[in-house]
Structure formats: C-alpha cells, structure tokens
Amino acid sequence: MFCKLFILSLCLLNVVCVTKLQRMIKDAIAHLGTECLSETSDATMSDVQDLVDHVRPTTRKALCLITCIHTKAGMQDEHGKLKEEGGLNFVEPLKQEDMDYYEISKEHFINCINTVPDDAEACIVGGRFNDCIIIGGKTKGILD
Fold it and tell me: What is the residue range of the signal peptide feature (predicted)?
C-alpha cells in the first residue's frame, strides 16, 4: 500500500512540475507574443494563440513571432544567435519547485541551445530552437 501511495505521489508531483514548465512557456508566449505583434509584420493574435497551443510555426510570420519572443526572453540575440544565459534564466524558477525536474529542464534548454544550428537567418533559428524545446521536451517527458 505504501509503495502505491509513493508512486502516486511521484506521478502527481511530476504532473505539477510539467504543468509549471508548460504554464511558464505559455505565459511567456502570451505576454511577450502580444508585445511582439507590433514588431512582427502580419502576425495576429491567432498566431500568438497557435504558439501558446504549441502549434509548430511554419509560416514566416509565425517563425519571426517566436523569434521575437525568444529575443525578448533573452534566449536569442538580435542576430538570431542562441544565448545559454537566457535559457538558464528562463528555467530558474523551476528550482524552487523540484530540483531534479529543474536539472532535467535546464539540461534540455542547454542541449537545444548548444545543438540547434544558429548559422541561418534569425527567424529560421527561432523556429529550430522552438522545435527542439517543444518536441524534445515532449520526448523527454518534461512537456505534455
């Protein structure tokens, strides 16, 4: 019985943490995406909502919108280069929730920053980085 309760509590803790990271990402996209609308030609609130819903950006306006969000969050510079410090700062609040989950999330962000090629135009890099974070995060079980 104790074993079942322990496993259930671990599962619930993982759901809370996953929800926390997802909520952080969705809140950042919603807030910063709204700010980026005036800086991204042709982007609309519908594009912001698609990003919040983790719809993969494929249009130029959506790619540039996610890049603007990354830039405002400190994860990309104005030339499209990925910035490790910005990724680390983004996941830092998770440290208060669960240190193991924070470490996994931190390693994931660092891995994406270090492996996504940032030799292309900024909006292409932003799309690649977004794919790595979202798709890889789902594969690793840190995002739903």
Answer: 1-17
- Gap between the Cα atoms of 62 and 18, Å rounded: 25
Alpha helices, DSSP H only, in 37-121? 45-52, 60-72, 84-91, 99-115
Distance CA 134, CA 26 (A): 11
**Residue 116 carries which DSSP code?**
S
Q: Let me know: does 82 contact 61? Beta carbons within 8 Å.
A: no
Return the SS3 of 41: coil
What is the Cα–Cα distance from 104 to 80, expressed in whole angstroms?
25
Fold annotation for 18-140:
Recoverin; domain 1 (1.10.238)
Q: pLDDT tens, 55-111?
A: 999 999 999 999 999 999 999 998 999 999 999 999 999 898 889 889 999 999 999
Q: Which residues contact 38 (CB under 8 A, 6 or more apart)?
A: none
Q: Coil, strand or helix: which one is 112?
A: helix
